[in-house]
């Protein structure tokens, strides 16, 4: 999470460079041929009006992130990040905890149930903060991936760099979404020991999927030490692979999703494999709105057949900074981030989850219904 401001003159300067990892024309043509029998994904087309019950608030807390899964109990389990409003928004990096709410349908309402990943002591790598949850079922077990950190514990009105630079990625495992969750004593994805590596400073924003080959691919946000500390940079994304959801993961240290002359183009990736289209997709938050053409924060879609070479999807714009409510007027918001999806039993996306800051006292999670059977006209 980061607040980013863009000047119009700077936008003009960065519109010209090509996206660093897009495939060439031959790769794009092969992609089209392989998916010609299936309509391309178009989130603006399949998004449905949002019922009021699909907004989740936890009174007295900032709510961020949001990952949803259906359990064997027939209930829907929402995992989210929360921290006290009294501590200020930037205290996500020093006070966040992954909480768990339960509802009877994806639209809600949801009710707080317990803390899935509470603080457990500074002696642990993730002992003071848990954040960025994403939930999956692989085989008979549930896997809750997240960012954890520890540090000096000082709550600040600005970002606490000690905690930020201790961000690492972990996973907790349980037999059902109610836990108990077994956490690891070491990170699943740690920073690289090489000071010149693109993930030498910190890692966060994990997203994982299992491909048709059975292997697990984990995409994550990474920060290097090439730029001045404590902030470091640039901010890039890296892919790691494993034969097991609990690792060990082998990193590919070639940065993905980069723009020339732009130190922080994207964050908040959500990666999945679409078996029907035989394609990997990623939704990301775009900082400058270059791919989307909006000129500001937006969610955009990329696709790949190997998770190495990526191209923007045929319909790259997923969402602007607007919420289309069923019973309320169109709502413009300040931030719409942390995209995640929930799928039905056939692998079709049925809910898009996003974190919302609309300028009010508390932030919250919204679950946007999706329906490929009941598409609406594109309205840009």
UniProtKB/TrEMBL annotation:
Return the Gene3D superfamilies for the record: Glycosyl hydrolase domain, family 43 (2.115.10.20)
Show the InterPro entries listed in the entry: Glyco_hydro_beta-prop_sf
Q: Which UniProt keywords apply?
A: Signal
Q: Which residues belong to the signal peptide in this entry?
A: 1-28
Q: What is this protein called?
A: Sucrase
Q: Where are the transmembrane segments?
A: none
